[in-house]
Amino acid sequence: IVKNTIVMIITSHLLKKSITNREQRPHKCDVCGKSFTQKGILKNHLLTHSQQRPYKCDVCGKSFTQKGILKNHLLTHSDQRPHKCDVCGKSFNRKGNLSDHILIHNCGKGFYMKKYLKNHLLTHSSLRPYNCNDCGKSFKRKDNLLDHLLTHSNNH
Prior knowledge:
- By secondary structure, the chain is mainly alpha-helical.
- The protein has a domain at 114-155: Double Stranded RNA Binding Domain (2-Layer Sandwich), CATH 3.30.160.60.
- Helices cover 44% and strands 10% of the residues.
- It has helices at residues 2-23, 39-46, 67-74, 95-102, 114-121, 142-155, and strands at 27-28, 35-36, 55-56, 63-64, 83-84, 91-92, 130-131, 138-139.
- The chain has a two-stranded antiparallel ribbon with strand order 1-2.
- Belongs to the krueppel C2H2-type zinc-finger protein family.
- This is C2H2-type domain-containing protein.
- Pfam families: zf-C2H2.
- It is found in: Nucleus.
- Residues 27-54, 55-82, 83-110, 130-156 form the C2H2-type domain.
């Protein structure tokens, strides 16, 4: 339900954006017909039709048409993985890769409050952050720990 709702919202947003952008893109590429909002963006785009690739990776030698694309490429050579999945803890060097990864955790359940979704996400995680100080047993949810603590109070 949540996944379908999100897809519908994104689709609706992209459709509106597409209609709006067509009206507000006065700079057109003579080669392929693609339009842009700014002249500078068109200028960068024109490099994709030429052999010019002025931005070269010092690590592997691959060349790019834009500085931003090179910067994004450099992340593939880095050990830095600043984008971490809240569900399983897996880290990614690109935000887009994390966004793609998060979809595997969507089991289709929907929640009307964010706190219930967060609580549910723990069921898909190996994390067990709530520990019993008496016996060391760990739990994914605080309410499960509290229920467990009652078993110790009944033993005393």
